[in-house]
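// run 5 | inverse folding | seed 20
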């Protein structure tokens, strides 16, 4: 294991071995406006950490590229979001890609439909972005996953359309030189995630899964984001916690969720979850500190580079 110049509170518990292995090579998500508040990412994240840059509708591409350049200059692997429904046309997509590659050396991308109801132009889904051919030559492409369903896509509450799309992406991965993986929405309960990952494998979808994990945050904050993002059955974990007055004012931490998945992975090495992707809903510093205290101070493994 690589060593890093990280300080750890001597009072912190010794990390569980399974959790430490599971967190190795974790990634984290930022937005330009949240990144601006971080004075030094190198003091928070292990060098080489993959950092996704979320592209929210209305964010100027100049801000996105500047954030990517800063993170790349500080030694991080940069993966910007490309939400299909906010990209008006092929020319805009080509311009964005040229800027990212030319100014920040970006070679990785997360392709997703995006949370906008009405597309800005010709793109409605990540498959259309792939079909442009503009991402040919990228080293790594990630696509979105929803362990608890996506009613924006499958409006009947099922998963038929989502599964068809994932099978298409699996087929593309098999004929592409790019490394591909599924980066998921955050969840709070391990059992539905395990069942979903096993179902993908049974359906012939072998893309590695980077499971979304909500970082430590106030309970009210998590419930707000969970409802807004359409988190499904595992929302009950937060709702149950909210009913316990002894826990209502205490920050939520993903310790139990991560530990359960880590233990399952340790028992079943072939299990489809390859890595953890953090959504730092309670702040980047808070999330990074939690990850470090639980053994996550390690760079992106070679198979995820």
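// decoded
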């Amino acid at each position: 294991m690589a060593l890093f110049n990280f300080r750890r509170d001597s009072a912190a518990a010794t990390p569980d071995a399974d959790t430490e292995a599971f967190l190795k090579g974790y990634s984290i998500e930022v937005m330009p406006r949240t990144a601006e508040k971080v004075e030094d990412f190198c003091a928070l994240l292990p060098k080489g950490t993959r950092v996704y840059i979320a592209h929210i509708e209305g964010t100027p591409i100049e801000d996105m590229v500047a954030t990517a350049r800063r993170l790349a200059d500080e030694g991080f692997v940069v993966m910007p979001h490309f939400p299909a429904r906010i990209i008006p046309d092929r020319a805009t997509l080509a311009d964005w890609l040229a800027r990212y590659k030319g100014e920040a050396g970006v070679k990785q991308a997360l392709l997703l439909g995006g949370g906008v109801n009405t597309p800005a132009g010709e793109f409605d889904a990540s498959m259309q972005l792939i079909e442009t051919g503009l991402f040919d030559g990228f080293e790594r492409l990630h696509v979105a996953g929803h362990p608890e369903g996506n009613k924006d896509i499958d409006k009947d509450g099922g998963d038929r359309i989502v599964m068809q799309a994932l099978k298409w992406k699996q087929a593309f991965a098999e004929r592409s030189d790019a490394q591909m993986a599924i980066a998921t929405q955050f969840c709070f309960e391990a059992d539905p995630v395990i069942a979903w990952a096993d179902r993908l494998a049974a359906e012939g979808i072998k893309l590695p899964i980077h499971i979304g994990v909500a970082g430590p945050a106030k309970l009210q904050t998590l419930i707000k984001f969970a409802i807004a993002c359409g988190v499904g059955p595992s929302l009950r974990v937060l709702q149950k916690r909210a009913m316990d007055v002894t826990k209502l004012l205490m920050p939520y931490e993903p310790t139990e969720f991560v530990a359960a998945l880590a233990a399952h992975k340790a028992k079943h090495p072939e299990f489809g979850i390859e890595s953890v992707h953090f959504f730092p809903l309670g702040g980047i510093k808070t999330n990074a500190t939690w990850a470090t205290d639980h053994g996550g101070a390690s760079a992106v493994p070679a198979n995820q580079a």
